[in-house]
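Open question from group meeting: does this chain pack into something compact, or does most of it stay loose? Before anyone orders reagents, we agreed to write out a predicted structure and look at it together. Recording both the input and the output here so the notebook holds the full record.
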Amino acid sequence: MIARIEETCNYSCKKYYIEQGLQGAYAWEPIEGQDQTEENKLRSMREDNPLGRCVWQCDNNVVDHQTAIIEFADGSTASHNMNGGTSRPGRSIHLIGETGEIEGYMEDGEFVVRHPNAHAAHTYSEEKVDINVFQGYARRWRSEAGRRFRRHAPGQAALDFLDQSRRLDLRHLTGFAADRARIQHSCVDIVE
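Structure tokens returned:
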């Protein structure tokens, strides 16, 4: 019965991690140093690999979708939408300010910067900016110190360029507050 379910399951670990080769070394940390044969990978998925658990029958209680609206002390706002069941996994960003906007899909490695343009027959100007998301983080993935970045590295790299003037722990506090607000069905204040 389980094998028949796996064959048609949209979230099959065999399809994602073995047949498509997604997540690379991250998926195979439990068998690091062993032969990376398909047989060893399948055994790992059945026995000791947390990524081999059935998504429908595990104890994971992470939400599959969430929207958080954040108001900063200066009155600016941000909304964060997370959808876990998308066809194309990744992160997109759209920043809108008084003098323009930045938009992009982080895994594409580029953003589009737009500025209003009031000249005749123009509504805006547009410039593509290559941010080389994968190049800098590929080196971090290979290092032991970079292990914790493996799972979210491409999106994390793009977020880091926005985080130059903010403390890293503020982003984590915001995430914890969003989760508390979701559970309590309320607004949560973050106090410095």
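Observations to bring back to the group:
Residues 168-184 form the longest helix (17 residues).
Residues 136-154 have pLDDT under 50 and may be disordered.
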